[in-house]
Amino acid sequence: TRVNQALALAHGYKHHSEMIGKSDFDSCAQEHAQEAYSDEQDLVNEVVPIISKEEKETWPDGRETWVLTTKMPLRDPDGKVVGTFGISRDITERKRMEQSLSERERWLTAVLGSIRESVVALDSLGTIQWINPSAAVLTGGSCEDCRGKLFEEMVRLVEPGDGSESSESGLMNSLLSGAVSSWERLNAELVKTDGSKVQVELSGSAIEVGENVIAGAVLVLRPVGAQSAELG
After folding, report:
1. Which residues pair with 123 in a beta bridge?
2. Which helix (H) or strand (E) holds 157?
3. How many angstroms separate the CA atoms of 47 and 138, rounded?
4. How far is CA 13 from CA 50, 86, 117, 162, in A?
5. DSSP states of 6-51 as a string?
6. Is the CB of residue 138 less than 8 Å from the CB of residue 155?
7. Please, which pLDDT band fits residue 229 given cuts at 50, 70 and 90?
8. What is the pLDDT of residues 169-198, one digit of tens each?
9. Cα dihedral sign, 127-129-135-141
10. Staple 193 to which of 9, 55, 141, 202, CB 3.0 to 4.6 Å?
11. What is the CB neighbour count within 10 angstroms for residue 125?
12. Band of the pLDDT at 160, cuts 50, 70, 90?
């Protein structure tokens, strides 16, 4: 019954008046038009309104776009539902960016997961955000078991390295605060999930996302001696 010029142009019409009297079935693919129609029938029958619903629109020429849609029942002065009205906001570019990032993340996870060395990524609080399968095996648990734990709950230094720090906490704080950018070959002891311990060499570097901005750290753990041969 009414439509603005922006939607008319999106549907391929030159003027909004050309859409008066038409429905989604006239300009959208059958599947999308049917879903939209069903939603609107729910509104007419006074089911809960649709708020900020992500919808994929499929057009007759095969194009796919995305919108964020809100639809409400339209009432007359007496409160009777006589129709529906809604607003759709095009979010196609955002969805494409999200899909691209998701694909990159899957690819990066696959690449990092294939590294044979044990790698752990921490956030700026020292919490494990990512761990590869090799490191999870070293702990005796799974990747899911390790995520969310403080790294210092699992690993303690056997010796303080070059003497500049008195504890593993001091070393981690220095790395995560940006006081040092990296440290290497520290002797450490990893406590496995069953309570047993593994001697490891520990090296790490800060994750920098901008000038003087540290987002976290990436660490590499290398089993020492007999454990190294056994795990290899």
Report:
1. 216
2. strand 155-157
3. 53
4. 26, 19, 58, 73
5. HHHHHTT-SSGGGGTT--GGGTS-HHHHHHHHHHHHHHHTTPPPEE
6. no
7. very low
8. 677 778 877 778 888 888 888 888 888 888
9. positive
10. 141
11. 11
12. very low
Instruction: Say how far apart CA 209 and CA 206 lie, in whole Å.
Output: 10
The whole-number pLDDT of residue 104 equals 85
Amino acid at the residue 10: A
Cα dihedral 125, 214, 121, 155, rounded to 10, equals: -50
pTM for the full predicted model: 0.53
Q: What is the DSSP string of 44-106?
A: HTTPPPEEEEEEEEE-TTS-EEEEEEEEEEEE-TTS-EEEEEEEEEE-HHHHHHHHHHHHHHH
The helix (H) or strand (E) run that includes residue 112 is helix 92-113
| Cα angle 90-96-102, degrees, rounded to a multiple of 5 | 140
Q: What is the pLDDT of residues 10-48, one digit of tens each?
A: 888 899 999 899 888 887 778 778 888 888 888 888 767
Strand order in the sheet with 50-58: 50-58, 64-75, 81-90
- Degrees (nearest 5) of the Cα angle 213, 217, 220? 155
- 205, 187 contact by CB (below 8 A): no
Q: Which residues contact 97 (CB under 8 A, 6 or more apart)?
A: none
Element (H, E) at 206: strand 197-210
